[in-house]
Amino acid sequence: MQTPCVTCGMTTSFAFAADGSFLASFQTQPFGFLLAMGTAMALIGGMYTAATGANVGILLKGVVGWRFWWTVAGLAAAAWVYKVLSYKGIGL
Q: Which contacts qualify for 85-90: CB closer than 8 Å, 24 or more apart?
Protein backbone atom coordinates (compact mmCIF):
# COMPACT_ATOMS: atom_id res chain seq x y z
CA MET A 1 0.00 0.00 0.00
CA GLN A 2 1.31 3.41 -0.93
CA THR A 3 1.58 6.33 1.44
CA PRO A 4 -0.81 9.20 0.61
CA CYS A 5 0.69 12.58 -0.23
CA VAL A 6 0.49 15.52 2.19
CA THR A 7 -2.45 17.06 0.32
CA CYS A 8 -4.40 13.83 -0.17
CA GLY A 9 -8.10 14.55 0.35
CA MET A 10 -7.78 18.34 0.40
CA THR A 11 -10.03 18.95 -2.60
CA THR A 12 -12.71 16.60 -1.30
CA SER A 13 -12.47 18.13 2.17
CA PHE A 14 -12.74 21.64 0.75
CA ALA A 15 -15.79 20.61 -1.33
CA PHE A 16 -17.48 19.09 1.73
CA ALA A 17 -16.88 22.31 3.70
CA ALA A 18 -18.23 24.46 0.88
CA ASP A 19 -21.33 22.26 0.86
CA GLY A 20 -21.78 22.74 4.62
CA SER A 21 -20.78 19.17 5.57
CA PHE A 22 -18.23 20.26 8.15
CA LEU A 23 -17.86 16.92 9.94
CA ALA A 24 -17.31 15.05 6.66
CA SER A 25 -14.82 17.74 5.66
CA PHE A 26 -12.85 17.35 8.88
CA GLN A 27 -12.92 13.56 8.73
CA THR A 28 -11.71 13.54 5.12
CA GLN A 29 -8.71 15.85 5.70
CA PRO A 30 -8.53 18.00 8.86
CA PHE A 31 -6.12 20.52 7.34
CA GLY A 32 -8.35 20.87 4.26
CA PHE A 33 -11.18 21.80 6.61
CA LEU A 34 -8.97 24.43 8.29
CA LEU A 35 -7.95 25.82 4.90
CA ALA A 36 -11.61 26.05 3.85
CA MET A 37 -12.47 27.93 7.04
CA GLY A 38 -9.45 30.20 6.53
CA THR A 39 -10.57 30.92 2.98
CA ALA A 40 -14.06 31.82 4.22
CA MET A 41 -12.56 34.17 6.81
CA ALA A 42 -10.32 35.73 4.14
CA LEU A 43 -13.39 36.32 1.97
CA ILE A 44 -15.19 38.06 4.82
CA GLY A 45 -12.08 40.09 5.64
CA GLY A 46 -11.65 41.05 2.00
CA MET A 47 -15.25 42.18 1.75
CA TYR A 48 -14.83 44.22 4.94
CA THR A 49 -11.66 45.81 3.58
CA ALA A 50 -13.31 46.62 0.26
CA ALA A 51 -16.33 48.15 1.97
CA THR A 52 -14.50 50.18 4.62
CA GLY A 53 -11.02 50.75 3.23
CA ALA A 54 -9.51 49.36 6.45
CA ASN A 55 -5.85 48.38 6.43
CA VAL A 56 -5.98 44.69 7.32
CA GLY A 57 -2.19 44.43 7.19
CA ILE A 58 -1.90 46.50 10.34
CA LEU A 59 -4.47 44.31 12.10
CA LEU A 60 -2.69 41.07 11.13
CA LYS A 61 0.86 42.30 11.75
CA GLY A 62 0.92 41.06 15.33
CA VAL A 63 -0.79 37.76 14.51
CA VAL A 64 1.06 36.44 11.46
CA GLY A 65 4.64 35.78 12.51
CA TRP A 66 6.99 32.84 12.84
CA ARG A 67 4.89 31.21 15.56
CA PHE A 68 1.85 31.32 13.28
CA TRP A 69 3.72 29.64 10.38
CA TRP A 70 5.23 26.97 12.62
CA THR A 71 1.74 26.22 13.95
CA VAL A 72 0.42 25.94 10.38
CA ALA A 73 3.27 23.56 9.49
CA GLY A 74 2.61 21.48 12.61
CA LEU A 75 -1.11 21.24 11.86
CA ALA A 76 -0.37 20.22 8.26
CA ALA A 77 2.01 17.52 9.49
CA ALA A 78 -0.52 16.26 12.05
CA ALA A 79 -3.23 16.12 9.37
CA TRP A 80 -0.88 14.12 7.13
CA VAL A 81 -0.20 11.63 9.94
CA TYR A 82 -3.97 11.33 10.43
CA LYS A 83 -4.40 10.66 6.69
CA VAL A 84 -1.62 8.04 6.63
CA LEU A 85 -3.12 6.25 9.61
CA SER A 86 -6.62 6.34 8.10
CA TYR A 87 -5.21 4.86 4.84
CA LYS A 88 -3.69 2.02 6.83
CA GLY A 89 -7.05 1.38 8.49
CA ILE A 90 -6.03 2.66 11.91
CA GLY A 91 -8.92 4.70 13.32
CA LEU A 92 -8.31 7.57 15.67
A: 87/1, 87/3, 87/4, 87/8, 88/1
